[in-house]
Amino acid sequence: MNEKGKYFIVALGLILLGLLFWYFSNIVTYVLISVVLSFIGRPVVDFLNGLKIKKWQFPSVLSAGITLILLWMVMIMFFRTFIPMIASQAQDLSNIDVNAAVQSLEEPMQKIEAFVVKYSSNGETFDLKAVLVKNISSFVKISDVSDIFGSLVGTLGNAFIALFSISFITFFFLKDSSLFTEGVVVLVPARNEEGVRHVLDSIKKLLMRYFVGLFFEVILVGFMVTIGLTIVGLPFSTAVVIGLFAGIMNVIPYIGPIIGACFGMIIGIATNLDIDFYTGIVPLLGYMALVFATVQVIDNILFQPLIYSNSVNAHPLEIFIVIIMAGSMAGILGMMLAIPSYTIMRVIAKEFFNKYRFVKKLTEKI
To answer: Mind telling me which residue stretches traverse the membrane in this protein (predicted)?
Structure first.
């Protein structure tokens, strides 16, 4: 068979593989979530496997089972603790009288409108009150608890199937760390088996450090934001909701913290509309901004260099460019997947294309 025929067969195989992944996208999603959970739980499994009580050692089945139970316990504790707080906060937001809230901000809004009209090129009037009523109403409508939980009830059956499937797959990935590797190796030619094994082993080590670090970063950022906002005067339940959102948004590089801070500011204003704007809301927003800025500085100095640079062995500028490119191509989702995808690409390039100087330079730290 000539070279063109080989390329055609390879291309056809990739297309068919892509179609299979698309058709069974739910199963692929379950497997990928299980892989991430197994990365997070792997240090616990390794610790248990290394424990010895006299001559008895933890079997891999028991280690995997205990780790899976711990993972689900953490998730159950998370939902039992935070969902009631989120529901309560959403209920408070849904009860806000938007028109009355905007009316309380009448004086500062008039000054802003006058400033906009004064420096506007066309001199047209600017109705800030109408803009605020429209946008706040949309935001409050999102917080309608009955709508949220009504939609959740309709998906409980699918959620149960998903949870069972993810748990089942995760257990075996925890039990046998080479299971995913063996599943991939059977799809490649025998002559490339050694290289593929080496690639998968490197990817596993790098991504395991990345996801474990990311998991702890979300927890620490959320914790620091919650403590900081509680200190500056927000109710604890409100601070927890904002801290939780800020921690999760921090997964999105660079713009995630901005989204989290803006969300926190909106909640801070919405839950304190009964106090004076100049003597109450403005100082509160200043203190909140200080909390978010302080947490971000700590995150940038301590957490992100460890996760985004050391864990995947890439230069911070390199990571920044990759994230910006991914964001321009696929938006926020692209930014979230940029670092894991780039890590996989670098490892594959080092193994199979290391003869090129550019690739050699780019992957020298892996």
So the answer is: 7-24, 30-49, 61-83, 148-174, 210-234, 240-270, 277-298, 318-339
